[in-house]
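Quick note —
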Amino acid sequence: MLIDGRASVQFGGDRALWLRVTSVCDKPTYHGWVWLTGYCIEPGTGKALARREIFVQITGLQIQQRKTDSAPSRNVAPVTRRRGV
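Predicted structure written out below.
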């Protein structure tokens, strides 16, 4: 997700960042605002740089689709659930 000045003035200009969102806080805030937790990422590699918690306007958020050709491959086994656990 691109976070820039449209989401909050604190991220305007060269302070914009890419955030991989891990959670959205469900506590009440000002109307139209939300707390997001995630990791700042390097756009070229997708590498996580730092964990951040930010307060932003929902209407200013810009969700970007990950490009399939630049996405790092993940060798992750599928999660299976056992009954009764």
